[in-house]
Write a structure and sequence with these properties.
The chain has 259 residues and is of the alpha+beta class. The protein contains five helices and ten strands; from the N terminus they run ββαααββαβαβββββ. 42% of the residues lie in helices and 16% in strands. GO terms for molecular function: carbohydrate binding.
């Protein structure tokens, strides 16, 4: 079986055919996603940084003015010159006015930056596709449910050619998700579990042992050299590996680009 794990990655636009079924493999990788972004999105972070620096510069200028005004007021009070009360009042009013202007300007700039970032994130989310076409997303993984049928070993190879593997079930939630899609064709479906390496020792295609099982009542029974596992709506069944069934492939979903 070791040689069955060797595979060649198809090009992004290449179409594969497995058991008479055509699969359009379009892996949405991070680099590809970034290349597909409009030019305005690639420059947008720099423009936002420039706007932020301008806002900070304006705030620094206002702060410097406020400090100078404060020093003048202190000098006036220390000199005891009561004849400049009108100037003191004017400076006090001016001080409060500049403070309010600086606060409002900073708040306005920050709100504008937040709005632009929100719009950019929404745009990027629309461009991101975590799974290839005709695959289903669930809990960080992508799943392909075949419409055609094949024996277990051919299904195993078909998944490898898409950069995936026959599905490995690790939770009750995942089993329920697969059962929901199983109801679509209501046929026994191959999963990535077998004991063809060692009779009675059930292992997944990544060579990990079974931690959580959903066997049907009375299974596995190894009746008639049954070494590969089928998914049914009421649990798992060990079947003959040469039987032709639909299959389910699984692979990690692609990350979406971040700002």
């Amino acid at each position: 079986m070791a040689e069955m794990y060797e595979h060649k990655e198809p090009d992004d636009s290449e179409e594969e055919t497995f058991g008479g079924q055509r699969l359009a493999e379009r892996r949405p990788r991070l680099l590809h996603s970034l290349r597909s972004l409009p030019e305005c999105l690639t420059w947008a972070p720099l423009l936002l940084l420039l706007l932020l620096f301008v806002s900070l510069g304006f705030f620094t200028l206002q702060l410097t003015t406020l400090v100078q005004v404060s020093r003048i007021r202190c000098l006036q009070r220390d000199s005891g010159d009561h004849e400049n009360n009108s100037l003191d009042k004017w400076l006090d009013t001016r001080f409060r006015s500049l403070t309010e202007v600086a606060q409002k300007q900073m708040q306005s700039n920050l709100e504008e930056i937040l709005q632009r970032l929100t719009r950019m994130n929404a745009t990027l989310a629309g461009l991101c596709h975590p799974c290839p076409q005709n695959w289903e997303f669930f809990s960080g993984s992508c799943y392909f449910f075949s419409w055609t049928q094949s024996d277990w070993r051919s299904a195993f190879s078909a998944c490898l050619l898409t950069g995936a593997h026959l599905v490995i079930i690790n939770s009750t939630e995942e089993e329920k998700f697969l059962n929901f899609w199983y109801a679509r064709n209501n046929k026994p479906t191959w999963i990535g579990l077998s004991d063809h390496h060692s009779e009675g020792s059930w292992r997944w295609v990544d060579d990990s042992p079974v931690q959580l099982s959903f066997w049907k009542k009375g299974e596995p029974n190894n009746h008639g050299d049954e070494d590969c596992v089928e998914l049914h709506n009421d649990g798992w069944n060990d079947g003959r590996c040469v039987t032709e069934n639909p299959w389910i492939c699984e692979k990690p979903s692609a990350p979406c680009p971040d700002l």
